[in-house]
């Protein structure tokens, strides 16, 4: 353990690394206690014993001792009210997440907004790290096979875990080869790192990568998603003025953005009106003469299917031709996929929505 005159030490394992411990280390360093912490990557129990906090190695989960491994046979811990077994990332978040939210956003731990972000970041970001490291699929593979559903393409290289995995390998960049071969001292000794140092460098790059994505997610939720709750609630409450059945919602423009769909689903559920809103209208910018968009509400958050796509006859049509086909002046476009369109004015977008709900 470090003394008061030296920085604390974070311990994790060496060798092949995964996204969960890369994120766990980054999360710990967001805490004031570990901001300047040293990192030791080893499986040597005697070295791990000297660390102030250890994650993803050691076979112990004990918060009082700051030990956060999940590989032991008896480990079954999950995040409160969730079912996915935790990885080292989820363990660190469960025990320190509220303090991390406070450290990054300034929202005090224990207050309602901090708790909302604590839970939201687990659901939208960290749980996927836990599932990936524990081999838990998003959908039941056996059920998919039984239903005869096959993947259309591989997204392995597109995932965050796939990106982290690439950091495990020391790819040689041909553009840097000449520089490396020339990096010798006066005695002809190469300046190349030893293998463990080189591996640690790649781990830190992976940790920085996932950490930047986490921080971006947290700040977006704190600065845009959280304030949007009140804005969308007001829009939801007043939506019947645009359609007597509440099928059209108008989202006011805010410079910080209004991520509306997540809140809309929650508000519909609270009101017992799931699936009732079909289209959302919003301005492209805050100018008085801004063009307006009409967006079909997705069936599920982040999905590509819509509750009611824009009319087939409008799809892929633009400008005057769109105005002629739709019967609404000021047409700008409708995407070929039918999920979004545009008009030169709010009145035009509203008229397009009123027509679309009835077609």
Would you kindly provide a written description of the structure presented here, covering whatever features stand out?
By secondary structure, this protein is of the alpha/beta class. 42% of the residues lie in helices and 10% in strands. The chain has eleven helices and ten strands. Helix 1 (19-29) runs parallel beside helix 3 (88-105), helix 3 (88-105) packs antiparallel against helix 4 and helix 8 crosses helix 9. The model is unreliable at 186-190 (pLDDT under 50).
Short description:
This protein has 359 residues and is an alpha/beta fold.
Low-confidence stretches: 186-190
> Can you write the helix and strand succession as a string?
EHEHEEEHHHHHHEHEEHEEH
Main β-sheet description: 5 strands, mixed
Discrete helix count? 11
Broad structural category: alpha/beta
**Shape, please?**
elongated
Q: How many angstroms does the end-to-end distance come to?
A: 69 Å
For the secondary structure, the number of strands is: 10
Mean residue pLDDT:
93
Question: Level of helix content?
Answer: 40-55%
Question: How are the strands of the biggest sheet laid out side by side?
Answer: 2-1-3-5-4
Measured by DSSP, the beta-strand proportion falls in 5-15%
Radius of gyration: 26 Å
Q: Key features?
A:
11 helices; five-stranded mixed sheet; 359 residues; 42% helix; single chain; alpha/beta; elongated
